[in-house]
Structure formats: C-alpha cells, structure tokens
Amino acid sequence: MASLLELKEIFRSADAVCFDVDSTVIREEGIDELAKFCGVGDAVAEMTRRAMGGTVTFKAALTARLGLIRPSYEQVQKLISDNPPQLTPGIRELVSRLHQRGVQVFLVSGGFQSIVEHVALQLNIPTANVFANRLKFYFNGEYAGFDETQPTAESGGKGKVITHLKEQFHFKKVVMIGDGATDMEACPPGDCFIGFGGNVIRKQVKEKAKWYITHFDELLKELEER
Known about the structure:
Elements: H1 4-12, E1 16-19, H2 21-25, H3 30-37, H4 41-52, H5 58-69, H6 73-82, H7 91-100, E2 104-112, H8 113-122, E3 130-133, E4 135-137, E5 143-146, H9 157-169, E6 174-178, H10 181-184, E7 192-196, H11 203-208, E8 212-213, H12 217-224
Parallel strand pairs: 1-2, 1-6, 2-3, 6-7, 7-8
Antiparallel strand pairs: 4-5
Protein name: Phosphoserine phosphatase
Active site: 20, 22
EC number: 3.1.3.3
C-alpha cells in the first residue's frame, strides 16, 4: 500500500493521467442533464441514486436509465449546444500543465462519447484519448440503444481501459482521478488514485482514498514543486 508521499511522487512522475468526466472534469452528471433535457429528470435521478448504492451492475443501470430517456440524436446535439457542459474550475490549467510536461491525458467516462468529445475539444485533448459510451441511433435519429462492447459500459471498465493503455503505450505510471467508486476501483491496474470532491463528495470515496482533493489547484501546486 503506497503512502500519500509515494502517491504524490507517482503523480509528479506519471506518464499518463486519466480523468473521470462527470462531476470531475465537468460540474454535472451528463446522464442526469440529458434526462432533465428530455423531461424525465426525477425518475432517472432516482435510478442514479440506486445505481450509486451498488445494488445493480453499471450496465444494468445504464440500460434502464437510457431506456427511460430514449434520447434522439437531435436531442443530444441540442443539449450540447443549448446547455454545454461546464468545466470544473482549475481543470483547464491542470490539463495544460500536464501537456506542457509531456504527460498524456485521457478522459475515461461512463458518460456519452458525443458529450465527452465536446469536453475534450475544450481541453485540447485528442478525441483518440477519449474512452466513453457510444449511443446508437436509427437512420431517422431515434434512439437505438448503446454500444455494449465499450469497456466503459460495464463495471470495472475503467480498469480495463487503463490495462489497455499500459499495453498499447507501455506506460509505467498511470494516475486515475475521479469522484466515484468506479474510478477508485481502477487502481490497480492504475498506479495512483486521487479522489476528487470539488463538485460532489461521495462518502465512500472520501473515506477510502489515501489522497483526496477538493480543488485542482492542489494538483497544480504539486507539479510546481518539482
């Protein structure tokens, strides 16, 4: 078990940093925003609460929530244009600093590719570095399900992404930063987990994470010390 000092050293010398997106890189939960936009916000928020309690698998919860929302292609695009995701304060500066140091930055999310790619664009992260769930649509734009083959569609998916990145790029040290249990579970294979509570504090993560922050400035300071 690494100490806090060892975790900080791993972060400062990391080859790659993976960020969760909902309630971490952005202030909102994408699926809840989409549900509100489609008029089923309360019902889906209740499902999300149950899913966070760990009584159902991630894929089952995602299937149920999307089955209730049934977003069309047009609705997803309109959500992004009318209510674009709000970046968490400090994230732009942190990603920019990591890029300056030659660190690869990835967005690894249980949210939706189209929304996450919009976020990646704002942070100068290549879309090839985005791992998220893909919504499927019929030719007329109606909802047709989601791509169940994506690793992020399942419990434990973020860890699978990190394993894939280590195999593909031969990264020695990969850091995972996020607000939720699925982020914490990705370490191992990730080498360091940093819990983030700047938008929402999840009790289980705050209690169990060896390194827990509430503002990205804390990580910027760590990088300045070297």
